[in-house]
Amino acid sequence: xxxxxxxxxxxxNFVVLSGLKQYKVDLSxxxxxxxxxxxxGMLRDELGVLPPGDVRxxxxxxxxxxxxxxxxxxxxxxxxxxxxxxxxxxLLSALxxxxxxxxxxxxxxxxxxxxxxxxxxxxxxxxxLHMILEDGTLLRGECEILLxxxxxxxxxxxxxxxxxxxxxxxxxxxxxxDLIIFGPGGLYTSLIPNLLVEGVSxxxxxxxxxxxxxxxxxxxxxxxPGFKASHYLKEVSKFIGRDIFGYIIINSGxxxxxxIKAYAAEGELIENDLEEDPRVMATELLNSELKEVQxxxxxTRNLIRHDSHKLAKELMSIVDNL
Length: 322
Fold this sequence. Notes:
Helix content: 25-40%
CATH class: Alpha Beta
Number of helices: 13
Strand order of the largest sheet: 3-2-1-7-8-9-10
CATH superfamily: CofD-like domains
Radius of gyration: 18 Å
CATH topology: Rossmann fold
Strand content: 5-15%
Structural class: alpha/beta
Order of helices and strands: EHEHHHHHEEEHEHEHHEHEHEH
Number of domains: 1
């Protein structure tokens, strides 16, 4: 059974894991700990816990429990003192308090949900993502970066504070993997934060695993305006230390005109300017179903998404040749 490690955060990890769970592979998810928006941000600030949101999504993706249990983990309260909070986030935070360990909390929720695989925080340290813009403005936290009104292009620095060490389990998974999948996800808010953790980039350079970069679908106007596929590859490679990828998966499909118009104010589809690169696998990967936005959610979520089954099929074609 091939060992597959998925690195990222948020919805990107959920999509990749949901598709791959249908195959006979050994799955592990390494999850960014930089999230500080929505319910997760409130719990971090009020309880001093590690961010549960992205981890919860991975646990649900890998779950073999009932549909009702998965819905419960994703349930978001719409009013009262818990408005905006997600039940799964509350459960993980409560278990962290009871056990004294976020890692143990994740393990226990994994048992409750009968997950197929492992979910590992990239670090056990409490960290906050920071970005210094070209004009010297300091953005504190992933949420501030996501909601920034001015362009992030030409930023001076991006870093985690305090500078964290990687969870040794995460590094072991990277070193022992057959295939590592990086992305999709927010470039500066979900993907690169993993590479800012001490030991992760080094492990990625040294592991003998085959590495795949799954390209995002659309640009964010403030974060990555005008970025083409080559810009994403160059930026990620800069933080890893070199270009390590053996395959690059890029969507070749186009969403409906209705969705393109809806996203015109937010961003544009990422252009594939890597057609001549032999590593590129370009295929139609869009999810044609519109996902309902959860009530009470304080952050805007993308509706243009990868189809988990189409993406998993492409990834498994790589696994089959390992």
